[in-house]
Amino acid sequence: MQVRLWRRLSILGVVLAVALASVFVACGPDAATPTDAPAASEESALDRTGWPATVRLGLIPTEANVLADWTPVVEHLAARLGLEVEVFVGADYAATIAAARNGDVDMVQLGPTAYVEARAQGTDIKPVVKWVNADSGLAGYNSLLITHMDSGITTVEGARGRTFAFNDPESASGFLVPSVFFLERNIDPESYFSEVSFAGSHEATALAVANGDVDLASNNNETLPRLFETGKVREDDIRIIWTSALIPTDPISVQNSLPESFHTAVKEAFLSFDDPAALDVLRIQGWIPAEDGDYEIIRTLEATKAQLAGAN
Protein backbone atom coordinates (compact mmCIF):
# COMPACT_ATOMS: atom_id res chain seq x y z
CA MET A 1 0.00 0.00 0.00
CA GLN A 2 1.51 3.31 -1.06
CA VAL A 3 1.59 6.07 1.55
CA ARG A 4 2.30 9.64 0.45
CA LEU A 5 3.39 12.13 3.11
CA TRP A 6 3.31 15.86 2.51
CA ARG A 7 3.75 18.94 4.60
CA ARG A 8 2.58 22.47 3.97
CA LEU A 9 5.10 25.00 5.24
CA SER A 10 2.82 27.99 5.50
CA ILE A 11 3.82 30.74 7.92
CA LEU A 12 1.01 31.96 10.12
CA GLY A 13 1.38 34.75 12.66
CA VAL A 14 0.47 34.18 16.30
CA VAL A 15 -1.49 36.91 18.01
CA LEU A 16 0.04 37.65 21.40
CA ALA A 17 -2.86 39.68 22.77
CA VAL A 18 -4.62 37.09 24.93
CA ALA A 19 -7.25 37.52 27.64
CA LEU A 20 -6.17 35.49 30.66
CA ALA A 21 -8.41 34.42 33.52
CA SER A 22 -9.83 31.19 34.91
CA VAL A 23 -10.04 28.66 37.70
CA PHE A 24 -8.61 25.25 36.85
CA VAL A 25 -11.01 22.35 37.32
CA ALA A 26 -9.28 19.02 37.84
CA CYS A 27 -10.21 16.17 35.55
CA GLY A 28 -9.28 12.53 35.88
CA PRO A 29 -9.62 10.27 32.87
CA ASP A 30 -10.06 6.67 33.90
CA ALA A 31 -7.34 4.11 33.40
CA ALA A 32 -7.86 2.45 30.06
CA THR A 33 -6.46 -0.29 27.88
CA PRO A 34 -6.56 -0.13 24.07
CA THR A 35 -8.96 -2.63 22.56
CA ASP A 36 -8.73 -4.87 19.51
CA ALA A 37 -10.45 -4.04 16.23
CA PRO A 38 -12.31 -6.55 14.04
CA ALA A 39 -10.32 -8.59 11.56
CA ALA A 40 -9.79 -7.29 8.02
CA SER A 41 -12.41 -9.71 6.70
CA GLU A 42 -15.04 -7.94 8.81
CA GLU A 43 -13.86 -4.54 7.54
CA SER A 44 -14.22 -5.64 3.93
CA ALA A 45 -17.96 -6.05 4.51
CA LEU A 46 -18.33 -2.34 5.30
CA ASP A 47 -20.36 -0.20 2.93
CA ARG A 48 -17.79 2.16 1.37
CA THR A 49 -20.36 4.44 -0.24
CA GLY A 50 -19.28 8.06 0.24
CA TRP A 51 -15.72 7.24 1.34
CA PRO A 52 -12.97 9.60 0.09
CA ALA A 53 -10.75 8.35 -2.73
CA THR A 54 -7.69 9.40 -0.71
CA VAL A 55 -7.66 9.88 3.05
CA ARG A 56 -6.14 13.12 4.32
CA LEU A 57 -4.88 13.13 7.93
CA GLY A 58 -4.10 16.40 9.71
CA LEU A 59 -1.59 16.57 12.59
CA ILE A 60 -0.54 19.35 14.96
CA PRO A 61 3.19 20.27 15.10
CA THR A 62 3.99 19.06 18.62
CA GLU A 63 7.58 18.21 17.65
CA ALA A 64 9.92 18.77 14.71
CA ASN A 65 9.90 15.08 13.72
CA VAL A 66 6.14 14.51 13.96
CA LEU A 67 5.95 13.10 10.41
CA ALA A 68 8.57 10.44 11.07
CA ASP A 69 6.98 9.50 14.40
CA TRP A 70 3.57 8.98 12.79
CA THR A 71 4.74 7.10 9.66
CA PRO A 72 4.03 3.59 11.04
CA VAL A 73 0.54 4.71 12.10
CA VAL A 74 -0.10 6.21 8.65
CA GLU A 75 1.04 3.00 6.95
CA HIS A 76 -1.25 0.99 9.21
CA LEU A 77 -4.20 3.25 8.42
CA ALA A 78 -3.55 2.90 4.68
CA ALA A 79 -3.46 -0.89 4.96
CA ARG A 80 -6.57 -1.15 7.13
CA LEU A 81 -8.63 1.35 5.14
CA GLY A 82 -7.39 0.15 1.77
CA LEU A 83 -6.71 3.72 0.67
CA GLU A 84 -3.77 6.04 0.13
CA VAL A 85 -3.18 8.31 3.13
CA GLU A 86 -1.81 11.84 2.82
CA VAL A 87 -0.55 13.71 5.88
CA PHE A 88 -0.74 17.43 6.54
CA VAL A 89 1.21 18.97 9.44
CA GLY A 90 0.19 22.57 10.07
CA ALA A 91 2.80 25.27 10.62
CA ASP A 92 1.01 25.79 13.95
CA TYR A 93 -2.12 24.58 15.71
CA ALA A 94 -4.25 27.24 14.00
CA ALA A 95 -3.22 25.98 10.57
CA THR A 96 -4.31 22.43 11.41
CA ILE A 97 -7.62 23.74 12.80
CA ALA A 98 -8.14 25.72 9.58
CA ALA A 99 -7.47 22.63 7.47
CA ALA A 100 -10.16 20.73 9.39
CA ARG A 101 -12.61 23.62 9.28
CA ASN A 102 -12.14 24.06 5.52
CA GLY A 103 -12.53 20.35 4.81
CA ASP A 104 -8.92 20.00 3.65
CA VAL A 105 -8.46 16.94 5.87
CA ASP A 106 -10.77 13.99 6.45
CA MET A 107 -9.52 13.15 9.93
CA VAL A 108 -7.43 15.19 12.30
CA GLN A 109 -5.39 14.98 15.48
CA LEU A 110 -5.91 18.05 17.64
CA GLY A 111 -4.99 18.86 21.22
CA PRO A 112 -7.92 19.14 23.65
CA THR A 113 -8.14 22.93 23.47
CA ALA A 114 -7.57 22.97 19.72
CA TYR A 115 -10.39 20.43 19.29
CA VAL A 116 -12.80 22.51 21.36
CA GLU A 117 -11.76 25.66 19.50
CA ALA A 118 -12.22 23.92 16.14
CA ARG A 119 -15.74 22.90 17.12
CA ALA A 120 -16.48 26.43 18.36
CA GLN A 121 -15.40 27.77 14.96
CA GLY A 122 -17.97 25.54 13.27
CA THR A 123 -15.71 22.65 12.30
CA ASP A 124 -18.05 19.69 11.86
CA ILE A 125 -15.93 16.86 13.27
CA LYS A 126 -16.50 14.07 15.78
CA PRO A 127 -13.89 12.31 17.95
CA VAL A 128 -13.48 8.58 17.37
CA VAL A 129 -10.43 7.74 19.53
CA LYS A 130 -8.01 9.27 22.03
CA TRP A 131 -4.67 7.89 23.10
CA VAL A 132 -3.60 6.30 26.37
CA ASN A 133 -0.47 7.66 28.04
CA ALA A 134 2.35 5.11 28.14
CA ASP A 135 3.62 6.03 31.60
CA SER A 136 0.39 6.47 33.53
CA GLY A 137 -1.93 4.14 31.63
CA LEU A 138 -4.48 6.98 31.66
CA ALA A 139 -6.15 8.85 28.81
CA GLY A 140 -4.73 12.01 30.31
CA TYR A 141 -1.50 13.96 30.79
CA ASN A 142 -0.20 16.93 32.78
CA SER A 143 0.86 20.47 31.98
CA LEU A 144 4.24 21.50 33.40
CA LEU A 145 6.13 24.68 34.13
CA ILE A 146 9.83 24.14 33.53
CA THR A 147 13.01 26.12 34.08
CA HIS A 148 16.73 25.50 33.67
CA MET A 149 18.32 23.74 36.61
CA ASP A 150 20.76 26.65 36.98
CA SER A 151 18.15 29.44 36.71
CA GLY A 152 17.73 29.77 40.45
CA ILE A 153 13.95 29.53 40.01
CA THR A 154 12.19 26.99 42.23
CA THR A 155 8.71 28.54 42.40
CA VAL A 156 6.60 30.83 40.23
CA GLU A 157 6.93 33.49 42.92
CA GLY A 158 10.67 33.40 42.33
CA ALA A 159 10.24 33.97 38.61
CA ARG A 160 8.85 37.54 38.79
CA GLY A 161 10.65 39.78 36.33
CA ARG A 162 12.11 36.87 34.36
CA THR A 163 11.23 35.78 30.80
CA PHE A 164 8.46 33.30 30.02
CA ALA A 165 7.33 31.27 26.97
CA PHE A 166 3.99 29.63 26.31
CA ASN A 167 3.70 26.93 23.65
CA ASP A 168 0.79 27.82 21.30
CA PRO A 169 -2.45 29.75 21.99
CA GLU A 170 -4.50 26.66 20.98
CA SER A 171 -2.61 24.28 23.28
CA ALA A 172 -4.25 22.99 26.46
CA SER A 173 -1.07 22.12 28.36
CA GLY A 174 1.00 24.82 26.66
CA PHE A 175 -1.38 27.73 27.23
CA LEU A 176 -4.88 27.21 28.67
CA VAL A 177 -3.98 25.23 31.77
CA PRO A 178 -0.90 27.27 32.81
CA SER A 179 -2.91 30.45 32.16
CA VAL A 180 -5.49 29.20 34.66
CA PHE A 181 -2.70 28.46 37.12
CA PHE A 182 -1.46 32.04 36.84
CA LEU A 183 -4.89 33.57 37.24
CA GLU A 184 -5.57 31.47 40.34
CA ARG A 185 -2.61 33.35 41.81
CA ASN A 186 -3.65 36.77 40.44
CA ILE A 187 -0.68 36.72 38.09
CA ASP A 188 -0.95 38.60 34.79
CA PRO A 189 1.97 37.16 32.79
CA GLU A 190 2.32 40.32 30.66
CA SER A 191 3.13 42.43 33.71
CA TYR A 192 4.57 39.72 35.98
CA PHE A 193 7.29 38.57 33.59
CA SER A 194 9.74 40.84 31.80
CA GLU A 195 8.85 39.25 28.46
CA VAL A 196 6.19 36.76 27.31
CA SER A 197 6.39 34.90 24.01
CA PHE A 198 4.90 31.93 22.14
CA ALA A 199 7.55 29.38 21.11
CA GLY A 200 5.16 27.42 18.85
CA SER A 201 5.57 23.86 20.15
CA HIS A 202 6.42 21.87 23.28
CA GLU A 203 9.78 20.96 21.78
CA ALA A 204 10.52 24.62 21.14
CA THR A 205 9.74 25.69 24.71
CA ALA A 206 11.90 22.90 26.13
CA LEU A 207 14.80 23.85 23.87
CA ALA A 208 14.36 27.53 24.76
CA VAL A 209 14.70 26.68 28.45
CA ALA A 210 17.58 24.26 27.92
CA ASN A 211 19.48 26.80 25.80
CA GLY A 212 18.87 29.64 28.24
CA ASP A 213 16.73 31.65 25.80
CA VAL A 214 13.87 31.91 28.32
CA ASP A 215 13.81 31.48 32.08
CA LEU A 216 10.47 29.70 32.46
CA ALA A 217 8.14 27.92 30.03
CA SER A 218 5.12 25.68 29.73
CA ASN A 219 5.42 22.06 28.61
CA ASN A 220 3.85 18.67 29.35
CA ASN A 221 4.82 15.21 30.57
CA GLU A 222 4.14 13.58 27.20
CA THR A 223 6.63 15.57 25.12
CA LEU A 224 9.36 16.27 27.67
CA PRO A 225 10.30 12.59 28.33
CA ARG A 226 10.61 12.00 24.56
CA LEU A 227 13.03 14.92 24.30
CA PHE A 228 15.08 13.47 27.16
CA GLU A 229 15.19 10.03 25.52
CA THR A 230 16.24 11.38 22.12
CA GLY A 231 18.92 13.56 23.66
CA LYS A 232 17.48 16.79 22.28
CA VAL A 233 17.23 18.05 25.85
CA ARG A 234 19.32 16.89 28.82
CA GLU A 235 17.17 15.83 31.76
CA ASP A 236 19.78 17.24 34.15
CA ASP A 237 19.21 20.69 32.64
CA ILE A 238 15.48 20.84 33.41
CA ARG A 239 13.68 21.54 36.67
CA ILE A 240 9.90 21.09 36.89
CA ILE A 241 8.40 23.62 39.30
CA TRP A 242 4.69 22.86 38.77
CA THR A 243 2.54 19.96 37.56
CA SER A 244 -1.17 20.35 36.75
CA ALA A 245 -4.09 18.01 37.24
CA LEU A 246 -4.88 15.62 34.39
CA ILE A 247 -5.89 16.92 30.96
CA PRO A 248 -7.74 14.62 28.49
CA THR A 249 -5.48 13.33 25.71
CA ASP A 250 -5.60 14.37 22.06
CA PRO A 251 -8.60 13.10 20.09
CA ILE A 252 -8.55 11.82 16.53
CA SER A 253 -11.66 13.25 14.89
CA VAL A 254 -13.39 12.55 11.58
CA GLN A 255 -15.43 14.90 9.40
CA ASN A 256 -19.16 14.40 10.00
CA SER A 257 -19.74 14.83 6.27
CA LEU A 258 -18.23 11.37 5.81
CA PRO A 259 -20.45 8.28 6.30
CA GLU A 260 -20.70 6.43 9.59
CA SER A 261 -19.06 3.40 7.99
CA PHE A 262 -15.91 5.49 7.45
CA HIS A 263 -15.99 6.71 11.07
CA THR A 264 -16.24 3.10 12.22
CA ALA A 265 -13.40 1.95 9.98
CA VAL A 266 -11.09 4.74 11.18
CA LYS A 267 -11.90 3.97 14.81
CA GLU A 268 -11.22 0.27 14.33
CA ALA A 269 -7.99 0.99 12.47
CA PHE A 270 -6.64 3.04 15.37
CA LEU A 271 -7.88 0.56 17.99
CA SER A 272 -6.08 -2.27 16.20
CA PHE A 273 -2.70 -0.52 16.01
CA ASP A 274 -0.29 -2.56 18.14
CA ASP A 275 3.23 -1.88 16.87
CA PRO A 276 5.26 -1.76 20.14
CA ALA A 277 8.19 0.15 18.67
CA ALA A 278 5.98 2.80 17.06
CA LEU A 279 3.88 3.17 20.20
CA ASP A 280 7.05 3.57 22.23
CA VAL A 281 8.19 6.42 19.96
CA LEU A 282 4.82 8.13 20.46
CA ARG A 283 4.97 7.27 24.19
CA ILE A 284 1.44 5.88 24.18
CA GLN A 285 -0.08 2.48 24.90
CA GLY A 286 -2.50 2.82 22.01
CA TRP A 287 -5.94 4.31 21.43
CA ILE A 288 -9.34 3.90 23.07
CA PRO A 289 -12.78 5.15 21.95
CA ALA A 290 -13.52 8.86 22.46
CA GLU A 291 -16.53 11.13 22.31
CA ASP A 292 -17.21 14.85 22.40
CA GLY A 293 -18.23 14.79 26.07
CA ASP A 294 -14.71 13.80 27.08
CA TYR A 295 -13.66 17.41 26.37
CA GLU A 296 -16.37 19.19 28.34
CA ILE A 297 -13.77 19.98 30.99
CA ILE A 298 -11.94 22.16 28.45
CA ARG A 299 -15.15 24.04 27.65
CA THR A 300 -15.65 24.58 31.38
CA LEU A 301 -12.16 26.04 31.70
CA GLU A 302 -12.65 28.30 28.69
CA ALA A 303 -16.02 29.55 29.98
CA THR A 304 -14.63 30.25 33.45
CA LYS A 305 -11.66 32.07 31.95
CA ALA A 306 -13.95 34.29 29.91
CA GLN A 307 -16.20 34.96 32.91
CA LEU A 308 -13.31 35.99 35.14
CA ALA A 309 -11.72 38.05 32.39
CA GLY A 310 -14.93 40.06 32.16
CA ALA A 311 -14.95 40.61 35.89
CA ASN A 312 -11.40 41.99 36.00
The geometry reads as globular
Q: What's the helix-strand series?
A: EHEHEHEHEEEHHEHEHEEHHEH
Classify the beta-strand content into a percent band. Answer: 15-25%
Distance between the termini: 56 Å
Query: What proportion of the residues is helical, as a percent range?
Result: 25-40%
Secondary structure tally: strands: 12
- Helices, by number, come to 11
Structural class: alpha/beta
Q: What is the makeup of the main sheet?
A: 7 strands, mixed
Strand order of the largest sheet: 1-3-2-4-11-5-12
Please state the CA-atom Rg, rounded to the nearest Å.
19 Å
Mean pLDDT equals 86
Uncertain segments: 1-43
Quick rundown:
The protein has 312 residues and is an alpha/beta fold. 34% of the residues lie in helices and 22% in strands.
Descriptive report:
By secondary structure, this protein is an alpha/beta fold. It is 34% helix and 22% strand. The chain is built from 11 helices and 12 strands. The strands form 2 sheets. It has a 7-stranded mixed β-sheet, with helices on both faces. The protein has a 5-stranded mixed β-sheet with strand order 8-7-9-6-10. Strand 2 (54-59), helix 2 and strand 3 (84-89) form a beta-alpha-beta unit. It is globular and about 60 Å long.
Blueprint of the fold:
Blueprint: E1 4-5, H1 40-43, E2 54-59, H2 66-81, E3 84-89, H3 93-101, E4 107-109, H4 112-120, E5 125-133, E6 140-148, E7 163-166, H5 172-184, H6 189-192, E8 195-198, H7 202-210, E9 216-220, H8 223-230, E10 238-248, E11 251-255, H9 260-271, H10 276-282, E12 284-289, H11 296-311
Parallel strand pairs: 1-3, 2-3, 2-4, 7-8, 7-9
Antiparallel strand pairs: 4-11, 5-11, 5-12, 6-9, 6-10
Helix pairs in contact: 2-9, 3-4, 5-11
